[in-house]
Design the sequence.
């Protein structure tokens, strides 16, 4: 089934794909099974053979064992595969010291990507400072704000290093979705929601808004550029030089 999915570009993508594959296999088995059952019912209980309907329903060991089998299959899928994956992805947040930490502020209809500067700290932001030239309201005069980097709908990440994205929204509910990374998280006004993953493949990957957010929702797209460590450091140095 992986051939029908977007490229797998994060460390946990294969686990997500496995669960999705198992879910589709179960649904396909149920579809075929129920389809065959309905065809059999149309033939077995046709009016020429059984003129009087029986209200008792399906009886016998086969019907009972089929129902039990479906319940067991769904329980195994949930308990053995889905819940452990969910727990591992929600509980195992990487340490900020080892990860690339970025803030992403969504708005109609763009993604504002905020990097801390060389000091590793985000500068102060304020609603009163927001303007067309300063979309996140960054206070450049604050002690830690002069060296911060802000990009529009473009994110650079180093390969094979965990990344933590602190996600928020300026206006309405958006949804940060990166199919190749198998991540999706709602961006809610007033809420700072973290999302994390580890890119494993260099290249260019699309950011899409997965929540209808207005008339121009269709063009709320961004790009993630996953690069080597040296290329990523050069990007940071080049952006820092533009601030001087």
Sequence:
């Amino acid at each position: 089934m992986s051939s029908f999915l977007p490229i797998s570009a994060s460390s946990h993508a294969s686990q997500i794909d496995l669960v999705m594959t198992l879910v589709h296999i179960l649904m396909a088995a149920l579809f075929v099974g129920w389809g065959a059952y309905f065809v059999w019912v149309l033939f077995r209980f046709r009016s020429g053979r059984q003129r009087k309907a029986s209200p008792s329903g399906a009886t016998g060991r086969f019907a009972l064992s089929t129902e039990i089998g479906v319940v067991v299959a769904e329980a195994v899928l949930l308990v053995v595969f889905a819940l452990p994956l969910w727990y591992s992805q929600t509980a195992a947040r990487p340490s900020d010291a080892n990860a690339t930490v970025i803030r992403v502020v969504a708005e109609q209809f763009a993604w504002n990507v905020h990097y801390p500067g060389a000091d590793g700290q985000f500068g102060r932001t304020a609603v009163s400072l927001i303007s067309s030239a300063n979309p996140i309201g960054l206070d450049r005069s604050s002690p830690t704000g002069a060296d911060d980097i802000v990009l529009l709908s473009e994110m650079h990440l180093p390969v094979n290093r965990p990344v933590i994205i602190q996600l928020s929204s300026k206006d309405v509910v958006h949804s940060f979705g990166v199919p190749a990374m198998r991540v999706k998280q709602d961006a809610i006004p007033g809420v700072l929601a973290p999302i994390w993953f580890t890119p494993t493949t260099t290249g260019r990957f699309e950011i899409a808004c997965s929540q209808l957010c207005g008339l121009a929702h269709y063009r709320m797209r961004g790009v993630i550029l996953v690069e080597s460590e040296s290329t990523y450091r050069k990007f940071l140095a080049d952006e820092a030089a533009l601030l001087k």
Notes: The chain has a mean pLDDT of 88. Residues 13-44 form the longest helix (32 residues).
